[in-house]
Specification:
The complex is a heterodimer of chains A (410) and B (314). Chain A is globular. The longest helix of chain A is centred in the first third of the chain and has 29 residues. By secondary structure, chain A is of the alpha+beta class. Helices cover 51% and strands 14% of the residues of chain A. In chain B, helix 2 packs across helix 10 and helix 2 packs across helix 11. The longest helix of chain B is centred in the middle third of the chain and has 32 residues. Classes of the chains: A alpha+beta (410), B mainly alpha (314). At the A-B interface, strand 1, helix 4, helix 5 and helix 7 of A face helix 6, helix 9 and helix 12 of B.
Chain lengths: 410, 314
C-alpha cells in the first residue's frame, strides 16, 4: 500500500474532544505523527479579566468538566496568596476532601476510557458503574455531580457534617473493594496485560526532558507529586505514598492510577478522622491588592499551574493557566514513535488527555505560503460583531454599548 | 407443485425469510447477553428489526471516487452467499434441504465469500479508513480460515464422509464419538469469532482506530444489508458448528428436534457473547501470532487424535 496518511481527529470516534493527529503509516507501523492543537479555544483567560474575582471562579471551574475542583482551587489559592488571606483549617480539609473524591471519579473514568480504547467495553461498563458511587457522593456533598462550586474566596461554601462524613466513609469502603478487584484484573488478566505492555514506551530521561507531569511521569519512575513536593490545602497533614512504576508504558500508567486510587482512600479516611472544627470561610476583601502569585495543584491528570495578577480592583489584571495535558502532549509524539496504528488510541488516552482544557491560544497558519496570523482581542471581537450583523442581522455593537452604559451606572 | 414447494423452502421456510428473522432474533440474544454480562440493561427485543428498518429508510451516500458497481453489489453478494450456505446444513433432522457429497466444502467456501465482500467493499470505497480495514480483513482471514477448515474437517474425517448429512447420520448412530471432537469445537468457535469480526477479533472494524473499518463509507440500505449479512452469517456459522459438533437428537420428533436446534444455536451464540465480553481487542500481529502459534497446533492435534481413534478403535 505504500505510505498512507490517516487522520485521527479533529473528529474521530477515539477522541472525545477535537484534536488533530495526522499519522503516516507504513502498513500498520507509524512513521511520523503530526499534531495540531487549538480546535477548542474558548478565550477563558481573557474572559476572566472582564469579571470580578467571585464570578471568575465559576468560569475557571469550567475549564475542565472533570478536574473542576483542581482548576478552581488552583485559581483561588493564587488569589488568596495575592490578598494574603489565611483560610480556616476546616476549609482546607474540605477542599482536599473534594479534590480527592474528584481524583477517584477521574481515575475511574480513565480506566473505563482506556478499556474502551482497547476494545474492552466490559471494563468501561464496570468502572463507570462504580464511578456512579462517587458521583452520587459528590452530588450529595455539593449539589452537583460535576462543577461542584464548593470553593469561595476565603474558604468553602458548604460544610461537611458528621452524617455526611459517615456516608463518605461507607462509600469509600465499597470503592476500595471494587478498586482491589480492578487491581486484580490489571495484574492477572492476560489479554489486558499483553495489550498494554510495551505500548507507548517513554523512558525516564525523556520524561524529565519533555516535562511530563502526573501519573504519566510517575509511571516512568519520576517521583513527583505536587501534593508531596509543595503541599497545599491539607496535604501537609496527611500521610500517603507517591505511587511510581518502572514499566514506562501504558501498563505502568494503569498500575499507577489504580495504585493512586488506593492512596486516595487512605487520604480521605485521614482527612475525615482529623477534620478540625471551626469556620469554613474567612472574611475576604472585595478588592485584591496589586501583586502576583502562581499556584500549583496536583490535578488527577498532573500538575495544574495558575497565575493571577491583581491590580488593586475587584477584577484580575491577568489570569494564566496551564492544564496538565499541555505538558504531556509533547511526550505523546515521542510515545507514538515506532508503534502500531492499533496503539494510537490507547497511547493518546493514556495521558488522560483533556484537549479542550489545554487550548490557550489560536494561531492560524496559511498552508499555502506559510504565513501566520495571531488574532488580537479587538480584531476578534470586531470580526464576531461583523459576522453576526452580516449573517444574522443582529447588531451586537449597540447591545454592547447599552450593556457598557448599564455597568457604568452600576 | 414441486417447484412451488421448493420456492417456499428457499424463500420462506427454512430459507431466506426464516433465516433473516432468526438472524435478527439472535442478534438480540447476543446483544442482551452481552449487555447483561456487562451489567447493562440491554436493548428491547425489537431493537435489531427497528435498526434494520431505520437504516433502510436512511439516505444512501456513495463516495464519488468509489467503484459504484462493486460498492453497491457487495452487500447483496454477502447476504446471498451467507444465506445460500444455510440450505446445505442439516438443522433439525439429519437431512438438509439440499445435500450432496462434498457439501461441507461448499458451505465453507460460501462462508468465505462474505469476508471477501467486506474486503472488496471496503477497498472499492477508497476511504483510507476503509482501505486499512479491508487489508486487515484479509490479514485476519489468513489467520482464522485455515483453523476453521481444520476444525470442521476433523469430524468429517472421523465420519469418513464429505457430506454434512452423512456425518449427521454417522454421529447419531455413534454418539460417543462426538466427544473426540471437543478441541475442534473450541477451535471452530474461535474461528467463527474471527469470521464474524467480534471482539477480540474485531480488528478490521476497530472503532477507536479506523472508525468503521470496511464499512466506514457504507450507509442506508447497503449498510443494512451488510449488517443483515453478518447476522445471517452468525446463524449459519452457529448452525454449521451445531450440525458438525453437536449433531445429537436429530432423529427425534421434528418439534422436539427444532426446539433442540434453537437451544444449540443459543448455546453457541451464548459462548460467542461470553468470549466477546471477557476479552480485549487484540492487535493484528497478536492475532496472527495467537492463531498460528497456539490454535493451529491444537487443530492439528485434533486431526491427529481423530486419525489415531479411527486407526486404533474403529
Amino acid at each position: 500500500m505504500g505510505i498512507v496518511k490517516i487522520p485521527i481527529g479533529p473528529q474521530h470516534p477515539a477522541l472525545k474532544e477535537p484534536e488533530s493527529f495526522l499519522i503516516s503509516l507504513d502498513g500498520e507501523r507509524i512513521q511520523e505523527v503530526g499534531m495540531r492543537l487549538g480546535y477548542n479555544h474558548r478565550g477563558i483567560e481573557k474572559a476572566a479579566e472582564g469579571r470580578t474575582y467571585t464570578t471568575a471562579i465559576y468560569l475557571l471551574e469550567r475549564v475542565c468538566g472533570i478536574c473542576s475542583q483542581a482548576h478552581s482551587t488552583a485559581f483561588i489559592q493564587a488569589i488568596e496568596e495575592v490578598a494574603a488571606v489565611d483560610i480556616p483549617k476546616r476549609a482546607k480539609y474540605i477542599r482536599s476532601l473534594i479534590g480527592e473524591l474528584e481524583r477517584i471519579h477521574s481515575h475511574l473514568l480513565w480506566l473505563g476510557v482506556a478499556g474502551h480504547e482497547i476494545g474492552f467495553d466490559t471494563l468501561l461498563m464496570y468502572s463507570w458503574r462504580d464511578r456512579e458511587i462517587v458521583m452520587d457522593l459528590l452530588a450529595m456533598l455539593s449539589g452537583n455531580r460535576v462543577h461542584y462550586g464548593m470553593n469561595v474566596l476565603g474558604g468553602v461554601k458548604r460544610d461537611i457534617d458528621k452524617q455526611k462524613q459517615e456516608e463518605i466513609l461507607k462509600a469509600v469502603d465499597i470503592l476500595e473493594e471494587r478498586t482491589k478487584y480492578y487491581i486484580k484484573v490489571a495484574t492477572e488478566e492476560t489479554t489486558l496485560i499483553k495489550r498494554l505492555s510495551g505500548v507507548g514506551y517513554i523512558s525516564k530521561e525523556d520524561v524529565y526532558r519533555l516535562g511530563t507531569v502526573g501519573p504519566t511521569g510517575r509511571a516512568s519512575g519520576m517521583p513527583r507529586d505536587t501534593r508531596k513536593d509543595d503541599p497545599y490545602a491539607a496535604y501537609d497533614e496527611v500521610d500517603f505514598n507517591v505511587i511510581t512504576d518502572n514499566h514506562c508504558d501504558v501498563y505502568g500508567r494503569t498500575l499507577v492510577r489504580v495504585g493512586e486510587l488506593m492512596e486516595t482512600y487512605k487520604i480521605i479516611r485521614q482527612l475525615i478522622k482529623n477534620m478540625p472544627d471551626g469556620d469554613i470561610a474567612a472574611k475576604f476583601p472585595r478588592k485584591v491588592p496589586v501583586g502576583e502569585a502562581t499556584s500549583r495543584y496536583e490535578a488527577p491528570r498532573g500538575e495544574d499551574v495558575h497565575y493571577v495578577k491583581g491590580n488593586g480592583t475587584d477584577m484580575p489584571e491577568r489570569v494564566k493557566l496551564r492544564a496538565p495535558t499541555l505538558a504531556n502532549l509533547q511526550s505523546v509524539a515521542k510515545m507514538l514513535e515506532n508503534n502500531n496504528l492499533a496503539d494510537v488510541p490507547i497511547t493518546i488516552a493514556a495521558i488522560d488527555p483533556c484537549f479542550s482544557c489545554t487550548d490557550r491560544m489560536i494561531k492560524t497558519v496559511n498552508l499555502g505560503n506559510g504565513s501566520t496570523n495571531m488574532f488580537q482581542w479587538e480584531t476578534l471581537r470586531k470580526q464576531g460583531i461583523d459576522w453576526y450583523r452580516r449573517e444574522k442581522g443582529v447588531d451586537f455593537a449597540e447591545l454592547n454599548k447599552k450593556y457598557a452604559d448599564l455597568r457604568k451606572v452600576d | 407443485m414441486a417447484i412451488a414447494s421448493a420456492l417456499f423452502n428457499i424463500i420462506v421456510f427454512p430459507g431466506f425469510l426464516f433465516l433473516c428473522l432468526m438472524g435478527l432474533i439472535f442478534e438480540y440474544v447476543d446483544r442482551i447477553i452481552h449487555a447483561r454480562l456487562q451489567n447493562r440493561q440491554g436493548p428491547p427485543f425489537f431493537q435489531p428489526l427497528a435498526d434494520f428498518i431505520k437504516l433502510t429508510a436512511k439516505e444512501e451516500i456513495i463516495p464519488d471516487e468509489a467503484d459504484k458497481k462493486v460498492f453497491k453489489f457487495m452487500p447483496i453478494l454477502a447476504l446471498t452467499a451467507a444465506a445460500t450456505a444455510f440450505f446445505y446444513i442439516p438443522l433439525w433432522s439429519v437431512n438438509s434441504l439440499y445435500s450432496f457429497t462434498g457439501d461441507v466444502i461448499v458451505v465453507l467456501y460460501l462462508l468465505t465469500i462474505p469476508t471477501v465482500t467486506f474486503f472488496l467493499g471496503g477497498w472499492s470505497s477508497t476511504s483510507m479508513y476503509a482501505a486499512i480495514g479491508a487489508v486487515r480483513t484479509l490479514t485476519q482471514l489468513f489467520s482464522y480460515e485455515v483453523l476453521l477448515f481444520l476444525g470442521i474437517l476433523s469430524p468429517m474425517v472421523l465420519a469418513d464422509t464429505w457430506s454434512l448429512t452423512d456425518s449427521a447420520i454417522y454421529y447419531n448412530s455413534h454418539p460417543a464419538l462426538m466427544l473426540v471432537n471437543l478441541a475442534g469445537f473450541f477451535i471452530s468457535l474461535i474461528a467463527l469469532l474471527g469470521k464474524l469480526e467480534k471482539v477480540p477479533f474485531d480488528i478490521a472494524e476497530a472503532e477507536t482506530e479506523i472508525v468503521g473499518g470496511s464499512f466506514t463509507e457504507y450507509s442506508g440500505r447497503l449498510l443494512a444489508l451488510f449488517r443483515m449479512a453478518i447476522d445471517v452469517e452468525m446463524i449459519v456459522g452457529a448452525s454449521l458448528i451445531a450440525a458438525v459438533f453437536l449433531p445429537f437428537g436429530l432423529m427425534l420428533n421434528p418439534v422436539v428436534a427444532f426446539a433442540l436446534y434453537i437451544v444449540k444455536v443459543c448455546f453457541i451464540v451464548f459462548l460467542l457473547s461470553v468470549f466477546r465480553t471477557i476479552f480485549a481487542r487484540l492487535r493484528i500481529d497478536q492475532m496472527v501470532k495467537a492463531c498460528w502459534k497456539y490454535f493451529a497446533p491444537i487443530a492439528f492435534a485434533q486431526i491427529l487424535l481423530v486419525l489415531i481413534v479411527k486407526g486404533v478403535f474403529l
